[in-house]
Design brief:
β15 and β16 form a beta hairpin. α4 runs parallel beside α5. Helix content is 44%, strand content 13%. The chain binds acetyl coenzyme *A, the ligand O=CC(=O)O and magnesium ion. The site of the ligand O=CC(=O)O has 10 residues, from α9 and β13. Acetyl coenzyme *A binds next to β3, α3, β15 and α15. Belongs to the malate synthase family. This is malate synthase.
């Protein structure tokens, strides 16, 4: 079913907006005025979005030809200049514990009620962007902002309601990244940018109400690769403010530094958004994915298996310390990231080991100078809070300047030591298949072997497999597992054949009905001559 909307408040802007799928109740979100607003954003910014994506491809071609990322010569004045970001609003001064998660109504209520300081409602790494998920998420957030969100468990066993405003976490919203498009909304026949759809629709319905409560709106901006992309966001946010009659600088952003190229432009990104940026965040999982992607053709920088790539690897330590130093010099928050462990029910010993790893990670963050951290699960909030309370007595530690830190280009790209074991190789295959199957089934974040898996963590597994397997291209010597087995397609085949024995939980598995499709996709992605930019691009064509 398809609806072409002909009406709206501004003559000349209503035509040419087509919603290609209609679900019950969506008309209250996708009003003619909302669609006209979205179309205005698309028409104004689509050209620049495409130019930015093209610039990413040009840069990657240089890396593939052997170039290494470096700090930019043309922006040295920004790095050396003495400037600070605009003052941070009161609601975002203390962000010591932030919970993140997908946007279904139960999660939204649980997260807002969780006792965390902030909640990042996530349309990106942890949401599979089916049309139903997106609309349900926007609807839930609108009701949450209005204070009317509730949810009844399907079996009627529990009715979820929101705590009073003052006891709720502060809401931040993460729209999808620049690379994604929204196929259900066409403007002049083109798919609109998913980033503009998510952020634009949220602002259209909630910006005034949030501004009236001195609560933003606040955003997390994902997967940027360069300061020009930050400048594009700045222009978008400024346009949204103008169109919706908000004060300039009302919308605030925290940018995830989660690509390797962006680590070389932290100052520049802060500068491009300096009237509205409040912090940077170490999005470690996408960062590792980006490191692999950037160096896909660099044999000397192959990473060991996923489990060995922890934050104490020198290249990751350098990145987090540079982020802290850069943010604090500019008056911005330096947010930490996500430990992948989640609570393990039914096994006290394993649970304690998992919690110990989260504890060690949060302790590292707070003692290094981070102003706050992320948790994936409400049960981890007390643990993170206890460590930040113990080591960060004030609301934040922006005064800790970390002038002792000196990070060079070589530190940021330092090769890592480690191995690839059979379990590591097979684990990557299993995670890719299970996660893809869940994602295709509409679930963007799942526990697998008691680790939180989302689009970023799964991307590490997927790009590692491609990279490891492609080292045998052009007749070169393949990589080897630590037991001497060559890493080749025969090994992949054996891992795929062995998968059913790992699926003893098949009946309860998220996305069980799409396992064969996921296996087919992984097979194609790993055999392809070119590394797909994002797993979610081909997968998106397979969801509603
Ligand atoms: C790399 C990155 O981008 S990190 C950011 C993106 N990733 C995330 O945000 C991870 C979010 N986390 C999650 O989605 C979940 O915690 C999962 C999928 C990992 C595990 O979820 P579950 O298997 O449902 O966990 P579990 O059964 O222990 O949940 C217990 C309760 O906590 C709730 N809960 C779990 N995680 C969250 C969360 N992140 N936010 C709010 N509530 C949550 C569940 O809804 C459940 O509530 P209920 O008791 O009312 O039914
Ligand atoms: O978005 C967070 C990440 O680690 O990726
Ligand atoms: Mg990410």
């Amino acid at each position: 079913m398809s609806a072409v909307l002909q009406e709206g408040p501004k003559p000349g802007e209503q035509g040419g907006i087509e919603v290609t799928r209609v679900l019950p109740g969506q008309e209250s979100l996708l009003t003619p005025a909302a669609l006209a607003f979205l179309a205005g954003l698309h028409r104004r910014f689509e050209g620049e979005r495409r130019a930015r994506l093209a610039a990413r491809a040009v840069r990657q071609a240089q890396f593939d030809a052997g170039a290494l990322p470096d700090f930019r010569a043309d922006t040295a004045a920004i790095r050396n200049g003495d400037w600070r970001v605009a003052p941070i609003p009161a609601a975002l001064q203390d962000r010591r514990v932030e919970i993140t998660g997908p946007v279904d109504p139960k999660m939204v209520i649980n997260a807002l009620n969780s006792g965390a300081n902030c909640y990042m409602a996530d349309f990106e790494d942890s949401t599979a962007p089916t049309w139903a998920n997106l609309l349900e998420g926007q609807r839930a957030l609108r009701k949450a902002v209005a204070g009317t969100l509730d949810w009844m468990a399907p079996d009627g066993s529990k009715h979820y309601t929101l705590k009073p405003d003052a006891e709720q976490a502060v809401l931040l919203v993460r729209p999808r990244g620049w690379h994604l498009e929204e196929k259900h909304v066409l403007v002049d026949g083109e798919r609109m940018s998913a980033s503009l759809f998510d952020l634009g629709l949220f602002c259209f319905h909630n910006a005034k109400a949030l501004a009236a409560k001195d609560r933003g709106p606040y955003f997390y901006l994902p997967k940027l690769q360069a300061m020009e992309e930050a400048a594009l966001w700045d222009a978008v946010l400024s346009q949204v403010e103008r169109e919706l009659g908000l004060a300039q600088g009302q919308l605030k952003a925290t940018v995830l530094i989660e690509t390797l190229p962006a680590a070389f432009e932290m100052d520049e990104i802060l500068h491009a958004l300096k009237e509205r940026i409040v912090g940077l965040n170490c999005g470690r999982w996408d960062y590792i994915f980006s490191y692999i992607k950037t160096f896909r053709r660099h044999r000397d920088r192959v990473l060991p298996e996923r489990a060995q790539v922890g934050m104490t690897q020198p290249f990751l330590k350098a990145y987090s310390e540079l982020l802290i130093k850069t943010c604090h010099r500019r008056g911005a928050h330096a947010m930490g990231g996500m430990a992948a462990q989640i609570p393990i029910s039914g096994d006290a010993e394993a649970n304690e080991a998992a919690l110990a790893r989260v504890r060690a990670d949060k302790l590292r963050e707070v003692t290094a100078g981070h102003d706050g951290t992320w948790v994936a699960h409400p049960a981890l909030i007390p643990l993170a809070r206890e460590l930040f309370d113990a080591h960060m007595p004030e609301a934040n530690q922006r005064h800790v300047l970390r002038e002792d830190v000196s990070v060079s280009r070589n530190d940021l790209i330092k090769p890592s030591l480690g191995t690839i074991t059979r379990a590591g190789f097979e684990g990557n295959v299993e995670v890719c298949v299970r996660y893809l199957a869940a994602w295709l089934d509409g679930n963007g974040c799942v526990p697998i072997h008691w680790l939180m898996e989302d689009a970023a963590t799964a991307e590490i597994a997927r790009t590692q497999l491609w990279q490891w397997l492609h080292f045998a291209d052009d007749g070169r010597e393949p990589l080897h597992l630590d037991d001497g087995t060559p890493v080749d397609y025969a090994l992949l085949e054996r891992a795929l054949i062995g998968l059913p024995s790992k699926f003893s939980d098949r009946l309860r598995m998220p996305g069980a009905s799409r396992i064969n499709e996921a296996i087919g996709m992984l097979d194609r992605l790993t055999h392809a001559d070119t590394l797909a930019d994002f797993l979610t691009l081909p997968a998106y064509e397979r969801i509603d």
